[in-house]
């Protein structure tokens, strides 16, 4: 029974995700971008679903370490994108917030997230290239998208 589910899941993953992605690519992109920006106090961007595999599917608010700097990641699906808002903050237990955001998404059937994604398609004005190394050692590139260009390192 479970092997049938796994095969079905693999089939749908094949249809909707690039097959060359390794399971940790989202973390690689997030970490590479924060390093590229020299550990900013915050950043907020979109990445296309089709460009990554989301190894935090279902997580909405979580801690993420980059070179000893902890970031609170607020992540939401905004089809055809995933939206990341990253704020440098001390490590905290975010379980309650994560569960609360998950519950809200379930209650509203994800409709506001879908509408946010549709609006983003029309409003995105800037993109940046993020070069990173996959866990298998291969170099890769992903473009991340912004509503406006961030000016953190230009102040």
Would you mind describing this structure in some detail?
This protein has 155 residues and is an alpha+beta fold. 34% of the residues lie in helices and 30% in strands. The protein is built from 4 helices and 6 strands; from the N terminus they run H-H-E-E-E-E-H-H-E-E. It has helices at residues 2-16, 25-36, 95-107, 111-123, and strands at 42-48, 61-66, 69-78, 81-88, 126-133, 139-146. It has a 6-stranded antiparallel sheet with strand order 2-3-4-1-6-5. Strand 3 (69-78) and strand 4 (81-88) form a beta hairpin. Residues 1-24 have low confidence and may be disordered.
Strand content: 25-35%
The biggest sheet amounts to: 6 strands, antiparallel
| Shape descriptor | globular
* SS content category: alpha+beta
CA radius of gyration: 16 Å
Query: What oligomeric arrangement do these chains adopt?
Result: single chain
DSSP strand tally? 6
Model regions low in confidence, pLDDT < 50 over at least 5 residues: 1-24
- Compressed to H and E, one letter per element, the order equals HHEEEEHHEE
Q: Give helix % range.
A: 25-40%
Transmembrane segments: 100-124
InterPro entries: DUF4528
Keywords: Membrane, Transmembrane, Transmembrane helix
Short recap of the structure:
The chain is an alpha+beta fold. 34% of the residues lie in helices and 30% in strands. The protein has helices spanning 2-16, 25-36, 95-107, 111-123, and strands at residues 42-48, 61-66, 69-78, 81-88, 126-133, 139-146.
SSE diagram, text form:
Blueprint: H1 2-16, H2 25-36, E1 42-48, E2 61-66, E3 69-78, E4 81-88, H3 95-107, H4 111-123, E5 126-133, E6 139-146
Antiparallel strand pairs: 1-4, 1-6, 2-3, 3-4, 5-6
């Amino acid at each position: 029974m479970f092997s049938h589910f796994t095969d079905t899941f693999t089939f749908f993953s094949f249809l909707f995700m690039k097959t060359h992605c390794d399971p940790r690519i989202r973390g690689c992109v997030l970490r590479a971008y924060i390093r590229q920006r020299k550990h900013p106090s915050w950043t907020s961007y979109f990445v296309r679903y089709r460009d990554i595999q989301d190894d935090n599917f279902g997580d909405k608010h979580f801690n993420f370490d980059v070179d000893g700097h902890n970031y609170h990641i607020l992540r939401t699906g905004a089809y055809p994108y995933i939206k990341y808002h990253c704020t440098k903050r001390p490590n905290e237990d975010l379980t309650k917030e994560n569960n609360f955001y998950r519950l809200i998404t379930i209650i509203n059937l994800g409709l506001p997230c879908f509408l946010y994604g549709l609006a983003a398609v029309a409003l995105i004005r800037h993109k940046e290239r993020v070069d990173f190394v996959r866990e298998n050692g291969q170099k890769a590139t992903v473009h991340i998208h912004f509503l406006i260009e961030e000016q953190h390192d230009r102040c």
